[in-house]
Amino acid sequence: MSTITDLATAVENGKLKLVPNLAKQCIDEGCAPMDTLNAMIGAMDVVGEKFKNGEIFVPEMLIAAKAMKKGVDVVKPLLAEGGAVSAGKMIMGTVHGDLHDIGKNLVIMMIESAGFEVIDLGVDVPVAKFVEEASKPDVNIVGVSALLTTTMPAMQETVEALNAMPNRSQFKIMVGGAPITQAFADEIGADCYTTDAASAAQAAKTLA
Ligand code: B1M
Fold this sequence. Notes:
This protein is α/β, with parallel strands linked by helices and 208 residues long. Helices cover 54% and strands 13% of the residues.
């Protein structure tokens, strides 16, 4: 088996100690940081499928998520371009009731790599917190993430509250997450929907 396959398997199986070593080994063997990251993202899809099919349960899913984070820590510095001048300022969080943060963190990582300053509001973010942070000066983009169909209404509530703000013309609203679609983004009044972290970073450059 190749190191990249070993890495994906280690993430799937939540091997916390193995994952960072294997991620480093992939890089040392010449694998591009983005390919190394994509192997780990693919592993999380397998984890999700196994969960859906009842082959694994929440604890296994959680430990795989922790293992992935350790691998992401290895590739993160290699993906950063480190521009000195900020391309803009973004705030970003996962909506109220939703604890998923891997995707949000990857989006933040890619947008920071594109030169933005990003304030991470964390997970389970109340609508009022999004509004409070979006009222601060210099915020160009508000990023809202949701991973559960059951938290899509919280995304709608959040976007509606942001749309009602007096300084609404100052920032753009970007939404994303596995259950979100362009149609849903249009319906709730978001400015931009993207499917993954790389396209979120591309879109941020055009929005700011
Ligand atoms: Co949860 N979970 N989970 N989970 N979990 C899913 C999402 C699920 C699809 C699994 C499944 O059934 N196949 C399912 C949701 C089903 C649905 O809603 N239809 C599910 C469920 C049901 C649950 C619980 C309800 C389980 C339970 O308790 N019975 C529970 C809910 C807890 C809560 O939030 N209140 C729960 C809990 C958890 C853990 C805590 C164990 C853990 C999260 C740990 C963490 O994040 N720190 C977890 C995990 C790991 C998953 C899966 C396996 C992986 C998610 C992930 O990290 N993917 C997931 C199955 C899956 O997605 N295949 C699943 C990798 C990540 C890189 O992708 O997050 O999609 P993703 O992000 C992408 C894009 O979506 C996009 O870019 C990212 C990077 O490319 N994106 C944006 C995301 N946000 C964006 C914002 C943008 C733009 C793009 O602009 C602002």
